[in-house]
Amino acid sequence: MQIGFDLDGFLYDSLEISRDVMNEIRKEMDYDPVTVADFRAQFQSRDWVALHLAWGMRKEDVGQYEDLYNARHNGDELPDFIEGGSNLLHAAVDAVGLDRFWIITNEPAINVRKRFVRDGLLAYVSRVLNPYADKSDTFHDLAMRQPDVPFRYVGDTISDGQAILAARERGAANLEFYGITHSYAWNTAEAMSAFCDEHAFAHTVGTLAEVPIMWNGH
User: Rounded to two decimals, what is the model's pTM?
Assistant: First the structure.
């Protein structure tokens, strides 16, 4: 078995840090702020342009916004681990081995490294992959290295589940998705549950304490 973890909204309480930077830039560009409710209802990481259009931004402004966001979201303000997150990460590695454990996140590598330095997790830096947006290619590539071995990924957004679905449709039938519905997630529990109910490869977990079901099976 291979195990994959997301970071933001799963192990780290990072939504407000990201939203604050976003809304600071939106204000400078004369756009209204995105509320927490709208953020959690609409956030997806498969298509950044589509996301910002959904939040009312003109298409011609998205490139400028992305440049400003990437410059300011530079890891200077580090999010805190959600309680139990560090222990869960160590437990997953103990269960499957470091060579079968991955962290797949849209967070830039330099920002992840800053967190891991602070949190004493540098041993895991080599297991981090950082696709800029859509994770489906990364999921497909990792899963197809051992197509007969289950690859189970846990994340907090429906777009993670959709990326798993896209990779499965390209032949990576060993991929499974676990969507976490705790209050730190970047999508709502209701929307995540609805997605998982529609797909046999997808399951929900309510808290970090439930995540070991991925490798324990109970």
Answer: 0.95
